[in-house]
Amino acid sequence: MKTLKITTNNEILIVDVDLNDYKSIKKELGGYAESVLTGVMHEYFKTSVLMLVDEEGLIKNLPINVVASHFYGYQIHGQVIAGDVIFAISLGENMTGFGERDSEQWMDKMLRDFPVLRRSRSNDSK
Questions:
Q1: Rounded (10°) CA dihedral 77, 83, 86, 88
Q2: Pairing mode, if any, of strands 11-16 and 118-119?
Q3: What is the mean pLDDT of the chain?
Q4: Is 0.90 surpassed by the pTM of this model?
Q5: pLDDT digits (tens, 9 = 90+) for 89-112
Q6: Of 43, 45, 74, 111, which is the most exposed, with the fewest CB atoms less than 10 Å away?
Q7: Under 8 Å CB-to-CB from 74, ≥6 apart: which residues?
Q8: Three-state DSSP class for 113?
Q9: Which residues contact 8 (CB under 8 A, 6 or more apart)?
Q10: CA separation for the pair 15, 39 (Å, rounded)
Q11: Are 6 and 117 in contact (CB under 8 A)?
């Protein structure tokens, strides 16, 4: 399913990842995933959006992901997200991607709202 990914290089892109397969998620993130749901994300997306992060990002000394740290609530508690992230919509015990059209729309909004972001040249959806 198509969804959004934000890298530590401040690139945003659409990726096609099977969110029901932990190996597919692990491959996309470079490590085992931990799901994060915050009030900051709910306020921004107006729905239950999860951010999937590398659960060992800090231990691996991965670069800080500035936009993901904002969504995580860094400005409230001071904790950061290290590594790339992908987004998913929570469906109770399951999750799904944004889909092609909604991924494009959310990417355009995030590019406007977060000037540090840029569209990836290696966008997997193209």
A1: -40
A2: parallel
A3: 94
A4: yes
A5: 999 889 999 999 999 999 999 999
A6: 43
A7: 80, 81
A8: helix
A9: 62, 63, 64, 65, 82, 83, 84
A10: 25
A11: yes
